[in-house]
Every structure is written in C-alpha cells, then in structure tokens.
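@channel sequence for tomorrow's demo:
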Amino acid sequence: MSLNSLTYETVSDIQAGVRVIVEVGKKRHAGFVLGRSEKGLPDGVVAKPIEGVIDDECILPPDLWDMALWAGKVCMCGYGAALKAVLPRHVYMGEKFYPSPKHEYIRGNFCERHCFNPFDSERVNFFAAELEQGERTLILFPQKETAKSFYEHLPDTMKQEALLWPSDNSPKLWQAWKSVNAGQFRIVAAPPGGIFAPLMPRKIIVEDEASPAYILPYTLNLSARSLAGHRAAFLGADFITAGRIPSLKTYARTKPKETLRPERRNIILSDIHISRKEEVEGITGHVPLTFSLIKHTYREIAQGNNVIWILGRTGEASEVFCPNCGEAVKCPNCGGIMQARNDGNILRCRKCGTLMDLPPKCDKCGYTLLVGRRAGIEAVAKIAGKYCNDVHIFTEGSKLRDMHGLILSTQRGLALCGKINVGLVAWLDLDDELWGQNHNTRCNVYSMLCEAYWRGRENNPKRKVLIQARRSGMKLAGFLAQGWTKFIREELRERKEFMLPPYGYIIELELGSKILREEIINLFMDAGIFVMDPGDNSLPLYVNAVSLEPIRKLLGSYTTLRNTIKITVRSE
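structure tokens (generated this afternoon):
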C-alpha cells in the first residue's frame, strides 16, 4: 500500500474504503480508494488504471475508517500511513476475509461521563456495572498487565462475551481482529492499541486517561484517548474517562470535580539541601539522604511494612565519561550515552540497549581512568546498606514473593503498591524527575506522586509519601496535598499563556540533511512562523502553532521521498 495519496483511472464507480490492486513503480500493491479526485491531472500526465478490485464494498466499520483518516490528517502523516498504523498487516496487504456484520448504525447522542476516583477498587466496580448493561463496550487500560488483570477478574458469564486484545502485532492480533470484526464478542478489554479494534462500540471507557502510556508510538504519536474521543463522537456513543486524576485536555473541556484529597499529615517534604551527601567510589556527585528519610524508613520496616525508594536512574551510574577531557563514552552502534552497570564493568546504551565492556581508556585523549556521573540504583543500594545493615534490600528484578524490606526502584516500582504492603514511598530526588525536556514532564511527575499516595491504599490507609526535593520539586510536591484541581488550573494557566497543548500544538520536524534543515527554517521564517532550532543537527526542529493548517500548507511540497520529513504532532 502506498503511504501517499495517488491518482488512478477507473471507469466504474468504486466506493471509498474498498481495497484495489494498483501498480506503483513496477510492482503491484493493494491500496484503499479514498474517493473521486476533484482535481484534474496536469497536461500531458496520464493516470494508470486500477488493475483489480479486491472487495465489493468497504470492508471496514465506518467509525474505524473515519478514525484512520482523521488521524492521518491530524498527525500529518498521510492517509496511507495512518491506515497502515491502524490496521493489521493482512488487511492493508490485501488478504481477503469476511466483512463485519452490518451492525445497526443509528447515531446516538454523544455523551461524555467521568469516574475520577482515587481508589482502584471503586473504579473497577464502576466499570463492571457499566459492562453489565449489555452494550458493545471497548475498555482501554494504559498497560497490558492492567488490562489482563481486569479481564481475568470478570465473571465467567461476562468473560464469554469478552476478548483480551493482544498487545503486539502478532498472529494473535489478526485472529483477534477477525473475531471481533465478525461480531463474536461484545466486550474488548485492551491496552492502548485496542483503540483499533473493529467493534463499533456503543460505549468507550478509558481508564487512567491521563497516563502518558496512551501516546501511540511511531507513525501516529497521538493519544489513544484522543482517538477514543473522536471515535465515540462519530458513533454518538458514551465516552467515559476515568482515573485518579484527569488529563489537562479533559479538565479544560469538562472540569470534573475532585471528590477526595490526600491528607497533609501523610505527606513529608524533606529539603535536599540539608541532607547527608553520600558518595560512591568511581562516581562523581552524591546521593542525598535526609535524616527524615532514614528515620521513617526504619520506622515503617519495624512495623512490618515495606518501603520503596524511587530514583529515576537505573544501573551503577547514569553515564560514564573521561574526567580529563570531559568526553562521554558513546555507543558504537547509535552514538547514545552509555550507562554503567555491574559495578561499572559493563556499559549499556540508554538509547538502543547495546552492551559493552568498560573501555580501558578514553577514545579521545587516551586517559586511563574513566568515571561515572549521577549515581543509579545499584550505587544507592551500596549506600543504603551502610544505614540499613539489618534490613533486606531489593532492587528491580527481584521476585515479588521474596520482597520484604527496602525496595530500590525507578517509577516502575509504584506498581508494587497495589500488590504488597507499602508503608512509605520516598523520592530520593524529585527534581531529577523534573529535568526532562518534554512539555508534559510536570504533569507526568505529578501523576506519579498521586499514584504513590493512592495506589493500593485500601490495603494500607496510613501509607506516607516522602519527597526529597529542592525548590522546583518542593513546589510541585506541595500540590499533592492541595489536590489535583489546583495543580491542573495552575498548569493550564501557564500553558494558555504560551499556547502550549491543549491550547496549541508542538510540531517536531526531523530532517534528513543539513541543507533541507536550513531550507525549512527559512521557509517558516518567511511565513512569519518562529522555529526553535536546538543547534544540533541530530535533534528535531520545534514549531509552536495554534492551528495545523498553515503548517500543512508550508510542508505540502515536501512529500516526495527525496524530501522526507518525519513530523510528530504533540497535542496533549
């Protein structure tokens, strides 16, 4: 299937959405008919004929077809690329299959509802009550594990009507797609990719809708939640967003009410400037450990509770560099930064995962003593052992049944809060989490704080959250006790001032050559559109825009293979 829209000749009237066989170059491909072209061909240009028709009519449900075309326009990737991202490979490669049954398509009244409740069990009960109403329902979860857990706890009678959507593009996905398309299931429980299930739902539920895990990778780079909302609006279906906190887009549109806030006495703020600054041999910098952190860790473990320390850096050190010339050790495959592991003897690329031994010397200056920078979880485990020598210390990868004591983890460790008894979750350096360059960093970190406080709290209502931070981290942590309403209002106020999402768009342009990069910068500048250039040709250009239409027009002539531009639109 061609990723660009191409024009072919036909004498018959072929319906939009029908698959046909066409010649592209010297090869035959399957493609989708978009409709009749309203523009004539340039003088002297003759269109190739359509060589064959695969289907008698559009084989896709109307909502799936509409969603794919809308996504291709919003993401500026083209209709073909969007269809390829939305559909299983067998469909766009032209494989024949039985079309979906003709569900009665009577557009209802679109209705948006919410279930923002901090307790997971209460939201699950709400979902179960919605499923019992007997309508075709698509329910999305941010991770495949949570989707699987929800599916496995369905009553047997309801499970017979439900399908757990596969999480990858495997043979199971094609079987799932065909069975749902044939009308064999009423309920689909799915990770984000399940938004492409051909169900024609009358109800779409999005759990933990603020989660960044809903951003679909690669071609679309769009939130599955946004796709779900568009699909529900097209069908006139119920659209239910749920979670501990709403996304900025949902709050800006409907302003759901906050029903419960954390108790201030369970939130401990600890100033990182007055901490003990512990160092690890071979690693520059230090790990802050406040007296408050050590005291509360001992207290909770003595009471039989587990404690989780959170640090956003795995391994021994975040990177390895030469102290003589300052050059960092780079990955031989992709040029990414190498992270130290296994006491610094093994290096792992943070970008592509390549493993290599620690080099004997610096490639640039020949200096023979390489050191680490910014200690990771493995280094923290050595420091913690000095203070907690009578406490079991675990790091990521330990078996769940063996865990009891102090657990060192990245943010992934928050999932343990719903599985084991956790009395304290402590951030060793919240400001480290805020160093990310993404415009959504503050929201993602705040969401983690809420998860640390609320997840699995039914099992331990006295759980405390301790936050070691500096000024910026302290300000964000202060919103935890004040509630998400105040945080979201403040965040929206700042974003509206600069027209950032959800009030505007951030467009990332990755270009293949320096010449093309300069040409695009000049093109936008001449049109009066500011372009932010990081100054590194390996990084994308950034454009902040209120509307996508001017961007589409400017980039309209850069669609050939010679001028390939990778465009990523951020609207969340």
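heads up for whoever presents: The chain has a mean pLDDT of 88.
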